[in-house]
Write the structure tokens for this entry.
Amino acid sequence: MYKNLFLKRGKEESLERFHPWIFSGAVHHIEGEPEEGEVVRVLADDGKFVAVGHWQIGSIAVRVLDFNDRKIDMTYWAQRLQEAYGMRKSIGVAGREGNDTYRLAHGEGDNLPGLVIDIYGHTAVMQAHSVGMHMARHDIAAALLQATEGTVENVYYKSETTLPFKAALGQENGFIAGGSTDNVAIENGLKFHIDWLKGQKTGFFVDQRDNRALLERYARGREVLNMFCYTGGFSVYALRGGAKLVHSVDSSSKAIDLTRDNVALNFPGDTRHEAFAEDAFKYLDAMGHHYDLIVLDPPAFAKHRDALRQALKGYTRLNAKAFEKIKPGGILFTFSCSQVVSKEQFRTAIFTAAAQSKRRVRILHQLHQPADHPIDIYHPEGEYLKGLVLFVE
Ligand code: SAH
């Protein structure tokens, strides 16, 4: 049976409200010495059972897998992944005509802390952020193939950069089931080459799917700038939406190649599109005033709480440049994917940028992550993507 971990007095309170993390400071002692990644039973100081979860060395000592006293075995993984898939099917994200790109497992949002799985057609890309999930990867892969009812055949494991470095697991990326090289996935009827081998995260930013679809509705007749384009998601939607022209910009020439590739896959030879490998700030400074639809979707400016102030300044500086140049009547889609930046803080940073540019600005939409990236209401830390759609007079 699993080793018992005793909490300090009163530290079970947040767990009774289903918060899935136990910080190392809350741990009184453990019976025996668990290996990193081992499942432990968590008990209150009076010995009352609280939860089972993955033990790890670090500030989060335990990631809770279940609040019932149960075994974490193949039955457990099968059940969790069936729940995750069933939920996506019931809300129309999985098994939808014209779309085979979605997130199957979103960490804490799916009661699977430390695990992310994105689906691209017949291939799942799986990412472990905890040692426990890494240890369980083969069971998880088997459960995932079973849960997805034959729609997924390959599992690519991509955790080289997400696992704690100190755990020294020597993990290499690679297939743990199947091995297909067919990497074209469909999102809302559009085709995308997914580079899970070398791309960022799992190869694609699935979380902007709904926001890209919204942009499409505003694109007709507009001159669009897609800043921080990465794989060109917003650009391809803008082209389908009838944009007059679309310019994609990213500082990485690899991203520019991916964008050109994805535009060609959907709209071969379309001369409305051009892509530029340039720094965002330099490009915004040098560009003219002709765009009337601008997307700003930068990488996370703050990865840690201590970088928060600088990050907020960064969002203000970036957005002020867009406000200065966007045409009257223009629409700005602006995002932050920094988890430590709250919705309110982001909005204040944008407010400051608008005020600096002295433009009249109205909020048309407040955006967030899509339904296949659910937020456990007891784990508000799971909320990370926020965006505003603004009308600039
Ligand atoms: N909008 C994209 C995701 C953007 S990810 C989508 O829908 O998929 C962030 C991108 O910003 C990365 O591709 C990265 O190369 C790019 N980037 C980072 N710093 C940059 C800078 N200073 N100027 C331009 N692009 C930058």
